[in-house]
Design goal:
71 residues; mainly alpha; 4 helices
Length: 71
C-alpha cells in the first residue's frame, strides 16, 4: 500500500513516471491491513514484555537453555 501511496515519488525520473500505479487497494483492504498492523504491533509489544520478564527470572543463555530443556 505504501508503494501505491508514494507511486509518483517512487517513479519520478524513471521511465515509469508517466504510467499509473498498477496497484490498487479498496478502503476495506486498507482498513483490514491497518487492523492487522495494530495486532502485529501489539503482539511484538507483548513478546517484548514476556522476554523482558523472562530475563529477570533466568540469567544468561545457560539459564535459558535449562528452561527450554524443562519445557
Amino acid at each position: 500500500m505504501s508503494a501505491q501511496d508514494n507511486w509518483e515519488r517512487l517513479v519520478q525520473g524513471t521511465s515509469y513516471e508517466n504510467l499509473p500505479c498498477p496497484l490498487s487497494y479498496s478502503s476495506d483492504s486498507r482498513e483490514l491491513q491497518q487492523a492487522e498492523l495494530e495486532k502485529w504491533t501489539q503482539s511484538v509489544e507483548l513478546m517484548d514484555e514476556f522476554y523482558r520478564r523472562l530475563g529477570h527470572m533466568v540469567a544468561g543463555m545457560a539459564g535459558y537453555a535449562m528452561l527450554i530443556m524443562i519445557l
